[in-house]
Design brief:
Blueprint: E1 3-12, E2 15-26, E3 31-35, H1 40-43, H2 45-55, E4 64-70, H3 82-92, H4 98-101, E5 105-106, E6 109-110, E7 116-117, H5 122-131, E8 136-140, H6 144-147, E9 154-158, H7 161-167, H8 205-217, E10 221-224, H9 231-236, H10 247-259, E11 274-275, H11 283-287, H12 298-301, E12 306-310, H13 317-321, H14 324-329, E13 331-336, E14 339-344, E15 348-353, H15 372-379, H16 384-387, E16 392-395, H17 401-420, H18 430-447, H19 461-464, H20 473-485, H21 490-506, H22 514-525
Parallel strand pairs: 3-4, 5-8, 8-9, 10-15, 10-16, 11-12, 12-15
Antiparallel strand pairs: 1-2, 2-4, 6-7, 13-14
Length: 528
């Protein structure tokens, strides 16, 4: 047999496309030709595959070998094609069963010693293989646990090219001394028990309540306040009150983590991710990009979780404005010379900033040294179109001694209430607040049954304002006046409606009342 065939996966974002790997052996001088639009890393696989095959004890043919990656017009990137190329070449030479290799998708990078090295993006690749109708995938032993997270497909983990060839019917003798390559990646996601907790927050009860509203509806938040007011502390605890991810969300988040080279472990990521890039971040690091291959940026890694931009006014204006399109669409399409990739980008944005460069504007005890024009210029990086996409705007103030003592007294009385037989105050722990969020989302999901939306923040304004779902004029009077005066844009009008629906869901109300709409306007204009 002079023609061998197997399959691999080419990733485009977190979506994979099936690639047929064909090997042809023809008469002529020894030559290894690789065609099918490979990138530089994939083009170098010729030397890796030849050396690995020799050191694994199954050398390739000494005739002309041509490897074709089909479809030829699809750009292929990375070293995960090494195993498929080697197996196809062995099948063309008759060293392994061609029928066996044609039924399996092969993924993995080859070392010069013939061992298989782990590669990023195994999870989305296995998902794509299952979607293409394959029943088995062969991966490096170090990626076996990650690949096994996908149901409905058999996973075979091998430590070397020799072991893979034996599995496909080669007459080679097994070598037991092969030590599998290990995954070098960041630690897996933390368990919910190790998360930060809202009980660690002292005071700022109205801001905590506003974060509960944000979590219940998936709304974006901005917090302006002096240094030490607790903005970062509050934002970092927002993920702790978000519900666990659904199966589909967990698979998507885990796929992104796999593509970014992070560790997953033996379970899918079940808690919402949290990303907090430094204010010197570039647009490419935030929205995704790269030169040799397109890697997920911070907004992609924060999908179904929280993206915190701390010291938001210190970010470059162009970086902040790059968020405007993903905030509306929930996805990001990256166009680069190396190709195009589409990533999910449905996250909750939290902006935290000081009111001015010195941070003391509005402080009752210290005097701000910034001039009015300096203060305006400082916050001007938060453009009007970006702020118009923020549903909840909060002013966070420093906690004084009186508030600190009052909080301590309240905590003492809450602890003593059960002992005295009295009623305890509602739990302000993350678990207690998360239960409120889960309840509100269940109410919203029931109302939105039959649609593709599950959170109020995702519902289009046209749907809320349609006949039969439109709120009565008596309820929307304040909102209508704000729109008429120009205090709200049409986008702001719809976002306030979504916020009012979330407040109604938290109260288990059938529909927002004028009270809910007034509270929504208050949250949108900022808590002072």
């Amino acid at each position: 047999m002079t023609l061998g065939r197997t399959y691999a996966i080419a990733l485009n974002g977190i979506r994979g496309e099936l690639v047929e790997v064909e090997a042809d052996i023809a008469a002529g001088l020894p030559m290894f030709v690789l065609i099918g639009l490979p990138d530089t890393a994939l083009g170098e696989s010729r030397k890796r595959v030849v050396a690995a095959a020799v050191n694994a004890g199954c050398p390739l043919t000494q005739r002309k070998l041509t490897i074709n990656l089909s479809p030829a017009a699809l750009r292929k990137q990375g070293s995960a094609f090494d195993l498929a190329i080697a197996i196809a070449a062995l099948a063309a030479a008759g060293d392994v069963s061609g029928e066996s290799t044609a039924r399996v998708v092969h993924l993995g990078e080859l070392g010069l010693d013939g061992r298989l090295r782990p590669v990023p993006g195994i999870l989305p690749s296995v998902v794509a293989a299952r979607a293409a109708g394959f029943e088995r995938v062969m991966v490096p032993a170090a990626n076996r646990d990650e690949a096994a997270l996908v149901d409905g497909i058999e996973v075979t983990g091998v430590a070397s090219l020799r072991e893979a060839a034996i599995w496909h019917g080669s007459d080679l003798e097994p070598v037991e001394s092969v030590e599998p390559a290990v995954v070098v990646a960041s630690e897996g996601p933390s368990e919910p028990a190790s998360e930060l907790d809202m009980t660690e927050v002292i005071g700022n009860d109205e801001v905590v309540d506003a974060l509960v509203v944000a979590a219940a509806g998936g709304h974006h938040v901005s917090m302006i306040g002096p240094p030490g007011a607790g903005k970062t502390m509050l934002a970092a605890r927002l993920p702790s009150i978000l519900p666990d991810l659904t199966d589909q969300q967990a698979l998507e988040v885990s796929s992104i983590r796999s593509l970014a080279g992070g560790g997953i472990g033996r379970e899918l990521v079940r808690r919402p991710p949290f990303e907090a890039p430094h204010h010197t971040a570039s647009p490419a690091s935030l929205v995704s990009g790269g030169t040799s291959r397109i890697v997920p940026g911070a907004i992609v890694r924060a999908s179904h979780g929280v993206l915190l931009l701390d010291e938001a006014a210190e970010f470059r204006a162009g970086v902040l404005d790059a968020l405007r399109q993903p905030l509306e669409s929930g996805s990001i399409t990256i166009h680069r010379m190396v190709g195009t990739a589409v990533f999910p980008a449905r996250f909750q944005l939290v902006l935290a900033a000081n009111p001015c460069p010195c941070g003391l504007y509005g402080s009752p005890d210290e005097e701000c040294t910034c001039t009015p024009i300096v203060r305006r210029r400082y916050l001007a990086k938060l453009s009007g179109p970006l702020l118009d996409r923020i549903d909840i705007r909060l002013t966070v103030r420093r906690l004084g001694l009186a508030a600190l003592r009052a909080t301590a007294d309240s905590a003492d009385s809450t602890e003593s209430a059960p002992e005295a037989g009295g009623a305890s105050a509602p739990s302000r722990s993350s678990i207690g607040l998360r239960n409120q969020v889960v309840h509100a989302r269940a109410v919203a999901a029931e109302r939105l049954a039959g649609t593709s939306w599950t959170r109020n923040a995702d519902v289009p304004g046209s749907w809320m304002r349609a006949r039969g779902r439109r709120l009565p004029p008596t309820a929307t009077a304040a909102l209508d006046r704000a729109l008429e005066r120009g205090a709200l844009t049409m986008r702001g009008y719809d976002r306030t409606l979504r916020l009012a629906w979330t407040l109604a869901d938290l109260d288990t109300a059938a529909a927002p009342t004028s009270h809910h709409l007034g509270a929504a306007l208050f949250l949108r204009r900022g808590i002072a």
